[in-house]
Please model this.
Amino acid sequence: MRMPSLSHSDQISIADKARQARSVVGENLTPAERRSLRQQAGDLLSREDAVLVAHYYVDSELQELAEETGGCVADSLEMARFGLSHPASTVIVAGVRFMGETAKILSPEKQVLVVEPQAECSLDLGCPPAAFGAFCDQHPERTVVVYANTSAEVKARADWVVTSSIAVDLVADLAAKDKKMIWAPDRYLGDYVKRQTGADLLLWDGSCIVHEEFKGEVLSNLKQQHPQAKVLVHPESPASVIELADVVGSTSQLILAAQQLDSSYFIVATEEGILHKMRQSAPKKTFVAAPTAGEGATCISCAHCPWMKMNDLQHLIAVLQSKDTEVVIDEEIRIRAAMPIQRMVEYGRQSA
Ligand code: 13P
Ligand code: SF4
Model:
């Protein structure tokens, strides 16, 4: 069975949007300016009864601010759980659009703001709801499993939503019940889950523009230069990179492995923002980014998510003052999308 592929114009528009995002990343600040902005943001969070929920890929300043003000820095599953359980009346999400939408879907009574409404995700962009709906219609016998990195509309079409932390376990459970599945949108993660579980998955043809750049051959050379190194890989990466991994997992699973594995040198194949938390939680260990460029290139690793990098202190302050980036979701779609997300949260809780 052929997997649907994105049209040439869809691929160009994802690349254009990524270029646009790269061009608006904020200017450098002096340490004194940073301190003052951080203080201002902290004061505003408390004055507005708001809690900051940040992903591991955003700027280290935002990660630290989230933690020191009683919010959290987490993977996408934990971000969803945290916003739901926290008593603050406003949740402010530093990450990308689908993370804000997930928080709103689960907590409709709260005001959910995003730090940067233009922060998207190539997986979400690569799975347009109408085309995905038509694809599902062609395969009504299949259970629809979608990755969290999708729009509310796509989730509303799903039976299950998953994050990378539970994808293998959940698909294995469904396969054990003889379910055949549609998997969307990440073909690399889908391919990995398929190899791990032997499940019958029909894959959508999406990818993460950051992780698909990791290069297996160059990583293998780097590994030979550092035979003591352990390799940590996010499963949105190509199979040639996953093959070299000591641990494959979600962002929080990789951070845990960095703390627990008996090695002092790690090569990390995921967005470089994660290195902040790894260095913080295992300060005596060395973490280097896995290569995204071929031999001889000047940039060894450019694993920066352009959309995650749009989140910064200035935007956070502006949003707390204006409240003009509220996430709004059509109520019918929200109700439908809430079901598979709640299933995911419940499944994650049981398997924790
Ligand atoms: P996690 O669920 O592992 O945090 O991943 C989210 C993501 O966007 C990875 O690129
Ligand atoms: Fe999306 Fe990739 Fe960025 Fe994660 S790193 S938010 S999957 S584009």
Summary: The mean pLDDT is 92.
